[in-house]
Amino acid sequence: MTTGLAARTAPERPAAAAPPPPAGPPSLPRRLARSRRAVAGLVLLAALFAVAFGAPLLSRWGWDDTDFTAFRQGPSARHWLGTTQSGRDVLALTLRGTRRSLVIGLSAAVLSTGLAGLVGAVAGFAGGRLDRILMWGTDLLLVLPSFLLVAVLAPALGGGALVPLLAAVLWMVTARAVRGMTASLREREYVLAARFLGAGPVRVIVRHVLPHLASLLVVDASVNVSVAVIAESGLSCLGLGVRPPDVSLGTLVAEGQGAATAYPWPFAAAAAMLVLIVLAVNLLGDGLRDVLDPEAGPRRGGR
Q1: Sign of the Cα pseudo-torsion (45, 47, 52, 53, in order)
Q2: DSSP H or E stretch at residue 289
Q3: Cα 42 to Cα 237: distance, rounded to the nearest angstrom
Q4: What's the N-to-C CA distance of the chain in angstroms?
Q5: 11-58 tens-digit pLDDT
Q6: 88 CB-near residues (< 8 Å, 6+ apart)
Q7: Cβ(269)–Cβ(252) below 8 Å
Q8: Tens of pLDDT along 110-142?
Q9: Cβ neighbour number for residue 250 with a 10 Å cutoff
Q10: Would you state the torsion angle of the CA atoms of residues 41, 43, 46, 51, taken in this order, to the nearest 10 degrees?
Q11: 176 Cα distance to chain centroid
């Protein structure tokens, strides 16, 4: 009886607190913020866009203005990067050329990567005759000399066809890689379960296949931006791309290379912008690949 009384009067111990639920994976913005390369590339690319599209705020001269009192002069308070042999402001021309090259490179990269993802995913998921037809066409385009094809067609079709022409010669290798990955993902359990539950091919590809291809497509897009910008610059340098009176970084390089030793300002400014664009998109592409890779470890995005 004493034992029962003691048991009734003994203070009750507080119940142990339940352990907190395990934290889920960090969100995409947090993973992106942890990637130093992605942040550096994004900041640099945003700065290039701001500088290129904010040209009227940075230079009082228009890209098509001519200063008849300053022909091939060095940097000064009137012309920060000097003038060309025709009296045009180098800073204004460089910003105009950067804007043109950025628009052409990004547009061609988006089109080519989208086409590669579409063709590769459809071929890999459908299989059979459709797969063989699409890959046969892809292999046929692969054997064509891409740069020569664009160089021949661009002048004939006009400057507006440069973006689709560049996109049309950049997608084939990535399409084959996407096709192989899609064919392997098609046999995964979650894909088979989704198809068994009645999900259509488009829904299965969008919901269950494309997320696993995101890192490949992002890297491909970043590489294609660099390739398209350099290809456009090369074509414009040869007189086959952007036509006068408009300018791009390639036309500025071509115009300034003849006198680069004596008057390096036009050539150096355009070449520096080309290097910065390629560096920015490559840093951003590498960082996004690490962030979007579903197989990446928890620390990979921070490297």
Answers
A1: positive
A2: helix 265-292
A3: 28
A4: 68
A5: 555 544 545 544 445 666 777 778 888 899 999 999 999 998 887 777
A6: 61, 63, 64, 65, 66, 67
A7: yes
A8: 999 999 999 999 999 988 899 999 999 999 888
A9: 28
A10: -110
A11: 19
Q: Helix crossing, 210-237 with 146-157: angle to 10°?
A: 70
Q: What is the pTM of this model?
A: 0.79
Residues in the chain: 303
Backbone angles phi, psi at 106, to 5 degrees: -70, -40
Q: Whose structure tokens read 């840093």? A: 283
CB atoms within 10 A of CB 165: 20
Residue 35 backbone dihedrals phi, psi, to 5 degrees: -85, 110
Place of tokens 């204004």: 92
Strand partners, 83: 89
Question: Which residue is listed with tokens 């690490």?
Answer: 290
Measured over the CA atoms of residue 206, residue 212, residue 214 and residue 216, the dihedral's sign is negative
Give the CB-side neighbour count of residue 30, counting CA atoms within 13 A: 6
Which stretches does DSSP call E strand in the chain? none
Q: Running DSSP on this structure, what letter comes out for residue 83?
A: B
CA 34 to chain centre: 19
Angle between helices 249-256 and 265-292 (to 10 degrees): 150
In angstroms, the Cα distances linking 131 to 189, 292, 300 are 22, 27, 35
